[in-house]
Specification:
Layout lengths: L18 E9 L4 H9 L4 E6 L6 E7 L2 H12 L5 E8 L16
Antiparallel strand pairs: 1-3, 1-4, 2-3
Length: about 110
């Protein structure tokens, strides 16, 4: 039995991932679980969540560069044909992660 658990939240940039983005997708409902499961196996993806509203799937993606992000979107995501629409929002600056307030650099 585990009594103590440590959760560590490390900025992706510290690990060499300089291009971070959020993806909002509209996926055919009958394929939602399959697409979410497939994306959860991608090493670039740190979060996949089913949602409601205009989109029904959200993903947090971390890539080493903007070129790697573009390649991920046009090759890996594009091959998931149940995705009807995709909105990509690059993260410009993170002010707070799960556990701590980050300093605002200039």
């Amino acid at each position: 039995m585990s009594v103590l658990t440590f959760l560590v939240d490390i900025s992706p940039a510290v690990l060499g991932f300089r291009s971070e983005a959020r993806l909002w997708m509209s996926v055919r409902p009958s394929r939602l679980t399959a697409v979410a499961s497939a994306m959860a196996r991608h090493p670039e993806v740190s979060l996949v969540a089913q949602t409601t509203g205009p989109t029904n799937l959200l993903a947090a993606v971390n890539c080493r560069s903007s070129l790697d992000l573009a390649r991920y979107l046009t090759e890996r995501i594009a091959s998931l044909d149940a995705i009807h629409t995709l909105e990509t929002a690059p993260v410009l600056r993170t002010v707070k992660r799960a556990g701590s307030l980050l300093p605002l650099g200039r």
